[in-house]
Amino acid sequence: MFRSFGISSFIKSPLLLVLWLGAACSVFGQDRVLYKQANVPTAQRVEDLLARMTLEEKVGQLSTLLGWKMYQKDGEEVTVSKAFEEAVQQRHIGMLWATLRADPWTQKTLTTGLNPRQAAEATNAMQKYALENTRLGIPMMMAEECPHGHMAIGTTVFPTSIGQASTWNPALIKEMAAAIALEARLQGGHIGYGPVLDLAREPRWSRVEETYGEDPYINSQMGVAMVSGFQGEDVASGKNVISTLKHFTAYGVPEGGHNGTSVSIGQRELHESYLPPFKAAVEAGALSVMTAYNSIDGVPCTSNGYLLNNVLRDDWGFDGFVVSDLGSISGLKGSHHVAATSEDAAKLAINAGVDSDLGGYGFDKYLLEAIKSRKVSQAVLDQAVSRVLKVKFEMGLFENPYVDPEKAAKEVRSTSHVALARKVAREGIVLLKNEDNVLPLSKTLKSIAVIGPNADNTYNQLGDYTAPQAEENVVTVLEGIQAKVGNDVQVNYIKGCAIRDTTQSQIAEAAALAAKSDVAVVVLGGSSARDFDTEYEETAAAKVSDTEEGEVISDMESGEGFDRMTLELLGDQLQLVKAVQQTGTPVVVVLIKGRPLNLNWIDANVPAIVDAWYPGQEGGNAIADVLFGDYNPSGRLTISVPRSVGQLPVFYNYRNPQRHDYVEGSAAPLYAFGHGLSYADFTYTDLEITTSGNARSPKVTVQFEVKNSSNVDGEEVVQLYVKDMVSSTVRPLMSLKRFEKVMVPAGGSRKISFTLGAEDLQVLGQDLEWLVEPGNFQVMVGRSSRDIRLEGEFVLE
């Protein structure tokens, strides 16, 4: 405003001159404030800013509010909402969560939600308000859900995590994570929630689809890939986001499969199985960790100081911040009943090492009360605030708080990202069975019947934590098959039945269609697709509610909150596939689902079975690529498929002794961990094991050759397992220690070499100290945990 005055104006008005000098000094003084100077070390910037903050401003920085309430959309224009202004001015908030999220829970649709350009404009408006209308001008930090794509309108939807892991290709998952990070960052996001590192050893649990499976080692490798892809080499790059590890810890094995309930595991199992994936991701540089809803041995994870301080920070050197899961601080009082008041719940959480309150109603006024009543010290508060501010500085938010809406509109869901989604989906498809080489299908067939509730269902294909989709963005199985064969093959479709509802089934009509076709592709499974009639918990988990008589039942049988008591195919799905099979037409079953289901009858009676999990927006194209042989399937299971819930828990690396069969049948799973077929045949030969060093510093090299003995090029997933023959504590029957996906051309061979070290051979002794014990070890190399092709032993002196 001073530019409109000439120097003569100041000479004529001494008062104006004084005001100008005061304003100038204020501006210049701001430039000299340490926390605003980019070249000052982060620790000094944090210390300087912290010293300037009031108690209320400090507490506000720890509140992460629900973000989708913070913008106002009027036609194409997006501005900040009154709720945002009040939260900033009255509560001094520092973070938002799921600002760009759209789904039935948030009530944001394709119409009421934001496209990528509008999303960037909305986050820019929020940053501008926070910077220009607060005393200290601290930028906002935006966290977004990013497990298999940024959960926002117009982004790329990749397969859910269980499908990602089935690729057994960490390099590909790192590339995918980088694409997700870019899409979130371009729209103004700074934190990506993911990866989920929970071990899935309870298939009745509703969130199996969000995990990488049952094994600590493959979960570790996938977790490291996600963290590396999300965060890149520099989180201030403008292309990367901070990775938040979920859920710390042992969340995936709730008693009875009930989401978020208590977990009963010992310290040895905790440290040997459930913590290693988190440790590997922390060592890869993860800057944020989220607490789990469950308790372990009677202590809720959100108030577990041993886990958050002793293990995470002291032992592992974690240097980021810890955020509660939504409502888990208030859950200390309302769910776990370990706190009598909300003030006590806030005290327990922050004293245990929780730095940020997701939801904004766990700390806030209750934390202020706890500090004023001296239940929480200023030092503990300052430490938590410092951890949050440190990340804001490291991301460069004080220097670069804004994003480019034009760039967001252009680069989110780019052609290359869509192609990558197809690649990830394709590599994650598992060929479970292929009797008499029914697959691949010929493109010269005269007619194909495409049948089933998931054959042409957009949302059933995408999994939980997915935003609304424009219809043209998703390719279903029916559309993928039609595109693959063109007009030369007659493709006929009928739904046949729903996932759960039985009032609209067309079993006879489906059988008739199959009978006059050369082959029937029957697409069955489950659904995590939420609809606008679904009720939700305060934590956003879906509620299982009673259905009125005559009301159509939702397809949803999986996804957060939808735990199962059985693993049966629901509704009329089994009846449908039985009717189709009885026509005598060759049948291929394609499964789209989020958890292992009972496939006993299908396995015994259907010649070809393909498991695609939730394959994302390009799932239809990817499945068609596999069905017709344009891609040789290379996916492998990362979770065992049980024969019955009576077997549970079923996972390959359970501890000795070996299990015996039941009166009713086998104790072994129907399909074992690591299983997956190929159109190619592979042989394994020439195992060589060499050791050097000793138990104090072991080095074991395992070499062998893999040959493709067929006339089809193919990728093989070679798997190396180790068994400790005698140890001081009870060990697993076998443990995955290395794997590699290798392309082996028809008639060709590949020499494979793996090296094992102390961390691969160590045991947690009776004193809960890690050590490598001398003795005999068995090496097993093969195509799955149940298909071992080579065995050998080595001795550590």
Automatic annotation (TrEMBL):
Among Pfam families, the record links this protein to: Fn3-like, Glyco_hydro_3, Glyco_hydro_3_C
Which Gene Ontology terms describe the biological processes this protein takes part in? glucan catabolic process
Under InterPro entries, the record lists:
Cellulose_Degrad_GH3 (IPR051915), Fn3-like (IPR026891), GH (IPR017853), Glyco_hydro_3_AS (IPR019800), Glyco_hydro_3_C (IPR002772), Glyco_hydro_3_C_sf (IPR036881), Glyco_hydro_3_N (IPR001764), Glyco_hydro_3_N_sf (IPR036962)
Q: Which controlled-vocabulary keywords does the entry list?
A: Glycosidase, Hydrolase
* Keyword Translocase attributed: no
Q: Where is the signal peptide?
A: none
Q: Which PROSITE patterns match?
A: GLYCOSYL_HYDROL_F3 (PS00775), PROKAR_LIPOPROTEIN (PS51257)
The entry sums up its family as follows: Belongs to the glycosyl hydrolase 3 family.
| PANTHER family the UniProt entry points to | BETA-XYLOSIDASE (PTHR30620:SF123), PERIPLASMIC BETA-GLUCOSIDASE-RELATED (PTHR30620)
Protein name as annotated: Beta-glucosidase
Give the organism the record lists: Echinicola strongylocentroti
